[in-house]
Each structure stands twice: as structure tokens, then as C-alpha cells.
Write a structure and sequence with these properties.
By secondary structure, the chain is an alpha+beta fold. The strands form four sheets. Strands 3-2-4-1-13-10-14 form a seven-stranded antiparallel sheet, covered by helices on one side. The longest helix has 17 residues. The radius of gyration is 18 Å and the shape is globular.
């Protein structure tokens, strides 16, 4: 399966340290070699870098590892292909616009018998189940709320419901962000850590790299990092239970939802027709 990395902060922060360890999982310390990508939110804009080459061999990944782009929300993905060829158009994260905002999505898993009837604004460019799921989520949000961004509570409830639907089709670990918040779903494996004062020293698992966060932060900084597996070996990561949807805002978890899938209602089953 793929590897996910996300960062949600209360102030713009660079992801160089975490990405250094994450990059190694694309061909050095793990076998996820079918491409990689990363999205940074900056104001209303996004910077996106995608490469169908393994991250361990990618000059673009080397650039990201050494260039301190600062962002409050970042999503990165290393691919192990299960559906779709190894091509640029099948490389995560995927980005689309809704309600005048860019949204980014990355998926780790495999959705079986998933063929939604997509006929609106959101259509896949590639041939992965992941991009199809993202388009389905956005189309359903558009149907529910029209052209107006709903209040956070209503949006969270709807995304929880959509996660329940999609998780019923298989493994559905994902990260989703609009630049203001980040949703992280644990279907099988997902870990996170919230770093805040007093900051300490951290050492990566996948590379011999150490950083003293107290030297590069202020006492008010708060940074949440989400990864498929913990990235450091001397910090206490939270390993989340399968069937948990987490909402991160300003570097902390503000809501949790349970998403252990059960039988779909008849009306939802009709929308997600098997192939």
C-alpha cells in the first residue's frame, strides 16, 4: 500500500525534516516506488509537485527536501500502485476547486466494486480508484450544499457520512485539506504527533537526521504531523484505531468520528454501483 504524510499547523511551517524521512520510504527503506507527490497551501494558492519516479531517485524530491517552503497545510503521498498505471495523471495528491478553494486529496488503500455515477463537474483524469473517490466526494458536497461553503459542523458531518460510504468498499486511509483544515482517516494504519512547547530534539527512523525543534520554533507554535507510520524514533506518536476520522485545525485535533463501516442503506448502494 501507499504512504501518507500530512502537516497541519497554526503558523506557516516547513516540512523539510519530516519529508527527509518520508522520501526514503519511496525506494530506500520501503518498496513504494510508483511515484510521489506533495501539495502546499499558501493563502488561496497551492504549490504542487508530482513525479511518477520513485521519491528516493527523484531530483524533484531532493529539491523539496532542501527548500523550506512554509505552509499551514501540506499533503504528501508515496505511491504503491493497486489500480491505474504508473503515470503522472495517476500520481497523488489530486487537486480540485470547489467554493472558490483548492482542495487536495491523497489515498492509501484499494476500493473494490466502486463505480459511482459521476456526471457533474468533477471527473477523473486518470484511472485510479483514489481520484474517482475524490471526485465523488466533491460532487456529493456540491449536491448537498450548492455553491456556498457550509458551516464547519455541517461540512464535518457530511464528510463523515461520505467516509462511511467509501470505507465500506475497502481500505480507505486518506488525507483531505482545503488549506484551512485537514481531515485524516485511519482505515488500517495511521499515526500522528502534535508538537508544541516545550519543544525537544527528534531523530528520524528512516534517515540519520536529528533536529532540535526548540531552536527553530517559538513557544506559541503548534504543528501536527500525520503519517502512515511514525517518522521519528524518540517521540511518542499516537497510533490511531482503524475506523477513526480526525479533524485537524491549527495544529491540533478538534474532532473525532468513528467510521467502522457497516451495511450501506439501499439508496447509497444504488449510487455506488459495482463494475
Amino acid at each position: 500500500m501507499c504512504q501518507l504524510l500530512g502537516m497541519n499547523c497554526n503558523v506557516p511551517t516547513d516540512i523539510c525534516f519530516s519529508f527527509t524521512g518520508f522520501q526514503a520510504r519511496g525506494g530506500i527503506t520501503d518498496h513504494h516506488t510508483d511515484g510521489w507527490g506533495i501539495t502546499f497551501f499558501e493563502g488561496k494558492g497551492v504549490r504542487q509537485f508530482l513525479d511518477p519516479r520513485p521519491s528516493a531517485d527523484s531530483p524533484v524530491a531532493d529539491f523539496i527536501r532542501t527548500y523550506p517552503i512554509k505552509s499551514k497545510n501540506v499533503i504528501a503521498h508515496i505511491r504503491k500502485a493497486t489500480q491505474g498505471e504508473i503515470k503522472l495523471e495517476n500520481t497523488h495528491p489530486f487537486v480540485r476547486e470547489i467554493w472558490g478553494q483548492y482542495w487536495s486529496f491523497a489515498h492509501n488503500g484499494d476500493l473494490k466494486n466502486f463505480s459511482p455515477d459521476l456526471g457533474g463537474k468533477y471527473c477523473p483524469v486518470g484511472d485510479t480508484d483514489s481520484e474517482k473517490a475524490f471526485c465523488y466526494i466533491l460532487e456529493e458536497l456540491q449536491k448537498s450544499f450548492g455553491n456556498t461553503l457550509p458551516p464547519m459542523e455541517e461540512l464535518g458531518k457530511k464528510l463523515h457520512h461520505l467516509t462511511l460510504e467509501l470505507a465500506a468498499h475497502g481500505i480507505f486511509n486518506f488525507l483531505l485539506s482545503n488549506g484551512d483544515f485537514m481531515l485524516a482517516h485511519c482505515s488500517t494504519k495511521l499515526s500522528s504527533i502534535v508538537r508544541k512547547a516545550p519543544f525537544s530534539v527528534a531523530h528520524l527512523k528512516d534517515q540519520d537526521v536529528t533536529v532540535d525543534f526548540s531552536a527553530v520554533t517559538t513557544n506559541t507554535d503548534r504543528v501536527a504531523v500525520v503519517a502512515t507510520l511514525p517518522l521519528t524514533e524518540n517521540e511518542s506518536w499516537t497510533v490511531h484505531d482503524p475506523g477513526t476520522l480526525l479533524l485537524f485545525v491549527d495544529g491540533q485535533i478538534v474532532s473525532k468520528f468513528k467510521t467502522i463501516p457497516g451495511p450501506l442503506p439501499a439508496e447509497e448502494s444504488k449510487k455506488l454501483k459495482p463494475k
